[in-house]
Amino acid sequence: MRYQAVLFDFDGTLFDTEHDEMTALSALVTQATGVEPPKDKLLKTFGMTGPDGIRFLGCNEEQAAWVKPRWHEASLNALKTTPVFEGLTEVIEILHRNGVRLGIVTSRGVSGVDMGLTSRGLTAYFDTIVSQKDTVLHKPHPDPLIECLKRMDIAPQDAIYIGDSPGDMQASEAAGMASGLALWGTHQPGLPCTYRLAHPRDILTICEVEE
């Protein structure tokens, strides 16, 4: 087995949250500021913490304080029905069955992750979740990945982090880990990475796991 652990990003990697998240955020920021954020700028908020993303879209402190709880509520409601990317549930089950340990490292709050995993019956497959509250620095800094590896007692060279954003790939490299770019979720397929994953089943190949 090439890797003892697979760590996943959440948004745009495990869960196809882009449409619901961006629609809700755009509407709230427009209501708060009177200016509709452009789509390319909205997409750049993926991988940021909620507060950082809201500020990035031009909200001042007062506007951000109004947007944040409303976006949090909208996001939680959406995650009750937001789909897991096709093929990933089966891959997660196979990895777990073959003894590959699984974790999640995300810049979102843990309540949203819990909601998504619970709604899909996936909670028991994951050893740990490192979320926004667990480190001072966030991706692209390596600290969240290092924290996850520490909790799982896994060496960096024995794990791979799978994500969809530049911050995910940069954090992997800085943590001394292999990186897998989820082509099913990314908008930047040319990002530097260790592996380009066209389909979730490619994870089984690079982990040398038999179905």
Task: Give a quick summary of the entry.
43% of the residues lie in helices and 12% in strands.
Summed over residues and divided by their number, the pLDDT gives a mean of: 94
Global structural class: alpha/beta
- How do the strands of the widest beta sheet line up side by side? 3-2-1-4-5-6
> Regions with pLDDT < 50 over 5+ consecutive residues?
none
How many strands, what sense, and barrel or not for the largest sheet?
6 strands, parallel
What gross morphology would you assign? globular
User: How many DSSP-defined strands?
Assistant: 6
Query: Which band does the percent of strand residues land in?
Result: 5-15%
Write down the secondary-structure element order: EHHHHHEHEHEHEEH
Distance between the termini: 13 Å
Determine Rg (CA atoms, Å): 17 Å
Number of helices: 9
Query: Into which percent range does the helicity of residues fall?
Result: 40-55%
Oligomer: single chain
Question: Can you offer a commentary on this structure?
Answer:
By secondary structure, this protein is of the alpha/beta class. The protein has 9 helices and 6 strands, in the order E-H-H-H-H-H-E-H-E-H-E-H-E-E-H. The chain has a 6-stranded parallel β-sheet. Helix 8 links the parallel strand 4 and strand 5. Helix 3 packs across helix 4. It starts with a strand and ends in a 5-residue tail after the last helix.
